[in-house]
Design brief:
The complex is a heterodimer of chains A (about 240) and B (about 110). Chain A has helices at about 5-15, 20-35, 40-50, 50-65, 70-80, 80-95, 100-105, 110-120, 130-155, 170-180, 185-200, 210-235. The relative contact order of chain A is 0.15. Chain A folds into 2 domains: about 5-160, no CATH class; about 180-235. The longest helix of chain A is centred in the middle third of the chain and has 30 residues, at about 130-155. Chain A is an all-alpha fold and about 240 residues long. With about 110 residues, chain B is mainly α. Chain B folds into 2 domains: about 1-30; about 45-110, no CATH class. The longest helix of chain B is centred in the N-terminal third of the chain and has 26 residues, at about 5-30. Chains A and B meet through α2, α3, α4, α5 and α6 of A and α1, α2, α3, α4 and α5 of B.
Chain lengths: ~240, ~110
């Protein structure tokens, strides 16, 4: 496969994700305008951050009068998963020049990352330059759509009638992001602890209850995973179904 | 209302911070492995953060002045069920669609 072919294949392999990127970025544009940002601010955020879940998080918390440091900390926590992506890409892309790696880092988004790593693992013989081309093929498709439909949402949002309850698009987007994560029992445990703790800590000022709930839930998920692993490892435990992650 | 100072501080810091997270291993740390205890907790970041964000928004929506709205509860469940079937776009459509349907049936729309 030449680099041009790899680029094109990455482009096509990521095309199905536009079904997610288009409504999601558009809703971000709409929701951010609802929260009181102007078009320039909405676009600045989408260009500087390109990480939808954390953008929704940051805007939601700011609109809720949370202090900046709480909004920042929570939004960064949402993005911490990308440290894992970064580590997972090192064996495939780690030898590229520094500037290229910086550009690849800027463009790192969930769906394209998942597609790229799967392709690399399915094709161990792929030369590095071809892998880099494939990666840029993936991201080249997603990124302009992300910017473009943020802009469409930001401009159209104000024209939509208030009766459409567009405030509800924010929780719906978070649910859409959450549901695919509930793929094992420990993930479900973490989510339930998080939901319960959010209600229990709702009185805590400055939205710090959110951070407390998230930390508790992460510990709960990790402990549930360790518990299931121990139970599965125990000889003669019968079930041995350790369906962990 | 979000103040300009708060917005730009947050956006610039979030942009830099997010880039550094993405750049961390690929750019700086190379092939070094994350400590095991960190990996096992990072796996649950999404499942730990999103419910805590979403539950107050659903239980006490600003749009109703903080009163619990059955239409929003039903719509949230519909979105979750559609999402569990594996479709992000489906979850968004099911959530908004169910909200409009319930609002229409109860004469709110």
């Amino acid at each position: 496969m030449t680099r041009a072919q790899a680029f094109r294949r990455g482009f096509l392999d990521c095309a199905p994700f536009l079904i997610i990127v288009v409504p999601f970025s558009m809703l971000f544009g709409v929701a951010a305008r609802e929260a009181g940002l102007d078009v320039l601010q909405v676009m600045a955020m989408s260009v500087l951050v390109i990480a939808g879940a954390s953008q929704f998080t940051a805007v939601t918390l700011l609109a809720d009068n949370a202090p900046v440091f709480v909004a920042l900390l929570t939004a960064l926590a949402v993005n911490l998963r990308m440290a894992m992506y970064s580590a997972a890409l090192v064996p495939h892309l780690g030898h590229a020049p520094l500037g290229t790696r910086a550009l690849m880092a800027y463009l790192m988004v969930d769906q394209a990352y998942a597609v790229a790593v799967r392709t690399y693992e399915d094709n161990p013989g792929m030369p590095m330059a071809v892998k880099v081309a494939y990666y840029f093929g993936c991201m080249t498709l997603i990124c302009p759509f992300w910017y473009g439909f943020t802009a469409v949402g930001a401009v159209l949002g104000q024209a939509l009638p208030a009766g459409l309850s567009l405030d509800f698009a924010v929780p719906v987007c978070f649910i859409a992001l959450l549901a695919p994560l509930l793929r094992s029992l420990p993930h479900v445990v973490a989510a339930l602890v998080s939901a319960l703790a959010a209600v229990v800590f709702a009185w805590v000022p400055w939205n710090l209850g959110l951070i407390a709930a998230a930390v508790l839930a992460m510990i709960a998920g990790a402990q549930a995973e360790l518990f299931l692993a121990r139970r599965a490892a125990r000889p003669g435990s019968g079930s041995g179904s350790g369906s962990v992650a | 209302m979000i103040s300009d100072a708060a917005f730009w501080t947050l956006t610039v810091c979030l942009g830099i911070g997010t880039f550094l997270i993405r750049f961390s291993f690929l750019g700086i740390l190379g092939g070094r492995a994350l400590p095991g205890w960190l990996v096992i907790h990072l796996k649950y970041v999404g499942a730990a953060v999103f419910p805590a964000l979403v539950v107050p928004l659903i239980l006490w929506p600003d749009a109703t002045g903080g009163d619990t709205d059955p239409a929003r509860l039903i719509a949230a469940v519909a979105a979750l069920l559609a999402g569990l079937r594996g479709s992000v776009a489906g979850a968004i459509l099911a959530g908004m669609g169910t909200l409009y349907l319930v609002q229409f049936l109860t004469g709110q729309l």
